[in-house]
């Protein structure tokens, strides 16, 4: 199978993030958002929420990417996210 340079670069970037354990959402904006919603939370609770949110999003985007691949596309689209969420039972 022959892949273009763009696909190879995209695959290497995906692999880099899959192997990474660092948080990808900037800490301060995420903390501000959570603190605005719940001002009583302790800092370790905010960090736990961030880790859970990122884990959820990573899995959602993995499923979204599979939907795009199944549709013979390399670019994800909102309809891929909607389909992934529907398959997961998150949306009617």
Mean pLDDT over the full residue set: 86
Alpha-carbon distance between the two ends: 38 Å
Which oligomeric state applies? Answer: single chain
Q: Strand-and-helix sequence, N→C?
A: HHHH
CATH topology of the domain at 42-92: Histone, subunit A
Low-pLDDT stretches: none
Main sheet record: none
Helix count, DSSP H or I runs of 4 or more residues: 4
Derived from helix and strand composition plus strand pairing, the structural class reads mainly alpha
Strand content: under 5%
- Which CATH-level-2 architecture of the domain at 42-92? Orthogonal Bundle
CATH homologous superfamily of the domain at 42-92, by name?
Answer: Histone, subunit A
Alpha-carbon Rg, integer: 16 Å
Find the count of extended strands (DSSP E, 2+ residues): 0
Helix content: over 70%
Please tell me what the overall shape is. Answer: globular
GO molecular function, one term: structural constituent of chromatin
Protein name: Core Histone H2A/H2B/H3 domain-containing protein
Subcellular location: Chromosome; Nucleus
Domain Core Histone H2A/H2B/H3: 13-87
């Amino acid at each position: 199978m022959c892949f273009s340079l763009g696909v190879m670069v995209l695959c290497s970037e995906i692999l880099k993030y899959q192997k990474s354990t660092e948080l990808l959402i900037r800490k301060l904006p995420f903390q501000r958002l959570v603190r605005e919603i719940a001002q009583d939370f302790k800092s370790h609770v905010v960090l736990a929420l961030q880790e859970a949110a990122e884990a959820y999003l990573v899995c959602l985007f993995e499923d979204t990417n599979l939907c795009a691949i199944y549709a013979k596309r390399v670019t994800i689209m909102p309809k891929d996210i909607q389909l992934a969420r529907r398959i997961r039972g998150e949306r009617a």
